[in-house]
Write a structure and sequence with these properties.
With about 90 residues, this protein is mainly alpha-helical. The chain has one domain. Helix content is about 50%, strand content about 5%. The radius of gyration is 13 Å and the shape is globular.
Length: about 90
């Protein structure tokens, strides 16, 4: 099985969700990806993909990071996506 970076996994999850929510205009929606600060120094990743500055590979963190991507693309979080925020 090929190895993927955590960033690729998260981006794929966010795009998958964008396609599911917006099947007709998902390409337009994901244009916001270019405006995301993908660096580790971006405080948006702390508590999602980073804990105290260290990268973590937790399923919840991947889903939370996907939420960050969706929000940065202007996509409203579904009820299912919001559940990750409250756990």
């Amino acid at each position: 099985m090929p190895k993927f970076s955590l960033g690729q996994v998260v981006m794929t999850r966010g795009i998958q969700e964008a396609i599911e929510q917006h099947p007709d205009d998902w390409k337009e929606k994901i244009r916001g990806l270019k405006n995301i600060d993908w660096s580790r120094e971006n405080p948006e990743w702390e508590g999602r993909l980073l804990l105290n500055g260290q990268m973590v590979r937790l399923a919840k963190g991947i889903e939370l990071a996907a939420n960050t991507i969706l929000q940065n693309c202007g996509i409203e979080l579904s009820e299912d996506r919001l559940k990750y925020e409250s756990k």
